[in-house]
Amino acid sequence: MDQKTMSESKVEATDHGMVAEFTTVDSLLAACRRVRDAGYIKTDAFTPFPVHGIDKALGIKPTILPWICLVAGITGTMTALVMQIWMNSIDYQYIISGKPFLSLPAFIPVAFELTILFAAFGAFFGMWALNGLPKFSNPVFTDPRFDRATDDRFFLYIDSSDERYDEEGVRALLGETGSDYINKVVEDESPKQVPKFIYSVWALSVAASIIPLLCVLTMRVTNSSKPRFHIFPDMDFSPARDAQQTTSLFGDNRAMRPDVPGTVARGQLSGSMEALTGIDFDALTAVDPGAAAQLVAAYQDEAAGTTTPPAEPVDDTPWLDHIPVTVDEALLARGKQQFGIYCSVCHGMSGLGNGLVNQRATEKQFDTWVPPSNLHDTALYSETYPDGKLFSTITNGVRKMAGYASQIEVQDRWAIVAYVRALQLSQNAPLDVVPAEKQAEVKAAVEAAKENLKRQEEAAAKAAAEREKEQN
Hints:
Layout: H1 3-14, E1 15-22, H2 25-37, E2 43-46, H3 54-58, H4 65-91, H5 104-130, E3 154-159, H6 167-176, E4 181-186, H7 196-221, H8 273-277, H9 281-287, H10 289-303, H11 329-347, H12 356-364, H13 387-396, E5 397-398, E6 401-402, H14 410-428, H15 436-471
Helix pairs in contact: 4-5, 9-10, 11-12, 11-14, 13-14
């Protein structure tokens, strides 16, 4: 190969493309459209600020980067699911919070995190690969005028690897765009060898990075009489105490602290004091302020779990004469349900006092048994036995009946009161309040109920007579 051929090969090897300079955004966009329409696809534009529409003007098509992100995200999802299924369902089965070994809802957080992580890595490294990075130098930097690309000039670049690239044709095309400066981009002639001291610094950095790992591994396999060195002490040295231990933090030297008197836990104070006690507190405060204050304090302590509230006074107590909650069909339905669960066993489903417990106690003739009240007794009507007093009876109990405050919620106790009042009204409701078309049906039901009660009374009397005869 002669000297001329070698020189031409060197020129061809160092030719990277052609760059043109423009002074305005409009002239750059026009030039980009002209180059795009000419069929060139390996082009680029350099501007000191973002230019709207430059991608369309250059004819830049969407890349496959979104697909790379999608594939990477799916890979992260599957990696997380396979990892967790293997770890928790196969290799080391461990029940956590009662969940099954294979619990996909519990695996979602880790799957979500790895999906985002892998997608981010795909976007980052995919962008590197698509742009041919890393590049430690770009041939356009060899042109000294290109420095103004970050100041006040705009440049259009056509790469020599484009299949339509022809040096003379490209120069003529860029000249037709109105550019005053067109220059060929050539290879940077500066040395390409990496300085040797860079390798030395890299080797020393790698060696230094191993030292912390060796220190950690050494400490894990050796014993020491000195305590661990805590970079982040966290709560390892906090003055925590176990139950029943002493401490100098408090004057009484007790580590376990009692509840603050009068403290009510969030959501534990249900309604007003009237709803909690069944007492008209305005009337009680007017008559005996001290008793009212004492009762409030007692219920606050009970709500905080420190004491048990005292039973409400019996004599001269200003009971509520109404139900302090909204009485509707839903409340009556709830009251019927709760009455059937807690009250019917003694009072009976109809409230006549003929529940199964009472029947059994009567049959066995227990000497200490006190028959439950007939709720249809006029002495228990609202005129003589206020709603608040009936609520207090359910809450605190009476005679052999225990209180149900610990078993029935406040709202449900008032629901039972409302249902008892409905039962009482049902026993004395005149027939003429029933629609005419329903009167015959109701009358028949009433007669059937009376016959049923009569048979029960006769059976009970007969059983009592037989027991008496056997005893004699």
